[in-house]
Amino acid sequence: MPSPAHLDDRYDEPDQLRDQVRQLLTYRATITLAIAVGLLGGLLLALLRPDGYSATSDVLVRSRMDPAFGVSNDNQVLLGTERQMALSPAVAARAAGALGEPSRAGALSAGLRVTSPPNTQILRLEYTAPTAQWAARVSNAFAEAYLADRQERTQALVARMTSGLEEQTTELSERIAAKQREKNAAATAALQGQNEELQKRISDIRAFDTTGGDIIRRAEPPTRPSGPGPAALIGLGLLGGLLLGIAIAWLRSVLEPRARSVGEVQGALGAPVLGILPGPGKDGELLEVGRSGGDRAEAYRTLAFRLRHAGGGTAGGSLLVVAPGRGGDAEAVAVNLAAALAEAGDDVLLMDATAGTPGLSARLPLADGDLDDTGASSGAAEGRVVVDAGAAGRFTLLPDARGTGDDAPASAPLTDTLASAGSGGAALVVTRPVLESADALAVAPRVGGVLVVGGDRTRRDELKRVRELIGCSGGRILGAVLDIDTHRSPFLGASRPLPAATPTAAVRGAGELPAQQTEGTEQGEKLPQPQKSSPVQDDTVTASR
Q1: Do 233 and 464 contact (CB within 8 A), yes or no?
Q2: From CA 34, how far away is CA 209, in angstroms rounded?
Q3: What is the rounded distance in angstroms from the CA atom of residue 89 to the CA atom of residue 387?
């Protein structure tokens, strides 16, 4: 079989993108439900989420060591350490005591967030509370408690340093007194110099500012709650629902076994889509061309035109119309296609091999005035009837001679009829679905081409099996026609017009035709005449069934 890659030359990226969007829009109910769930979630979050107010105070952290000791300011303050100190239980207990609630130190520290802007020595204490006033009070209390705790720790450091120096001065004083008793003036002077230097260091350390820093911005009660408001939460819910709906719709489209686009049908069948039937027929009528108007009847006429002028036309040839399974109405397509060809002036013979209940002859309007006692047309061959297609004219119908529900093979009578069909007319054969009966496989190698009828329920794997079976039986698939209810279940690609009916476009993907079949498109093409099978071929087909 030819590769379906030939189908992509008319199917560029914009068409693929449009089909993907249409494929997602097929699951509008899923997307709508997901959006509703997202909206409901946003509303619940907006209603149930308690309001929170955030107040912020900024503290400039000072160095705790005197610059005279030769330590630079950049290395004196480790803001990571200071953030941890601000979040320590000691600071929380001090802040809780200042607020008059010492038992709530742990609960108060839970709402505190301490950060530091980069390249600064500033601590930013942000506190979130149910009320704006309480948020500002607690933020300022933590800032003051942190500075008080840092000052206390600095004062403790100063006390430890001066205590050690004072011990040294006491020892020097004792040594100076001893040297004075010994009348050693030089040693006494040296010891007195050391003592004076230690005293100066003690004085300098005690003179150092022990404050931990300054509050450069005190917290003020905020005017509005922090975080996203109700409108933002609802918007986030809608956006989240939309994204969730698109994701679920995409997943469903990936897992969908049915063919949902023209591209999928062409890729699975290996043949072009020659027509799309828009919606169901009027009042369940089987024959519409010539007896009722509307878009569906015009679609049948367009399909007949494509087949006549597509290098595999039905004028003067034979065509098998068949559905993969129960997803397509092959009988309606065959009947209306016969009427459309009769309207174009062809002598059409429609052969019913469906063994249905009732047969086509019982459901179609037969010509009046020309019927004999047996119900057959007096002007037609034995066993045939004439169908009145109204304004489209008449065509001949050969009912199924096997009887309703008969499982006997239909290859022998159909072979004889196809072999005796005149070269000036068109022969159409409609059989039971390919995957339910072997009739189509017996007829496929004896006709000029096969037209596959698909529908909303047609699966991709069914089309692939039809392609393999007909190819193995020696038949050739001309194309597909899609019987789709576009109002109830829009088929992707149905809104995009099919390409103009040219011999090259219509048979693309079904194999190249011989040169003699691609000439004279202005007068209409002749489908290859029915092929007469050799006895060996007949035995092979019969054995395969």
Answers
A1: no
A2: 63
A3: 99
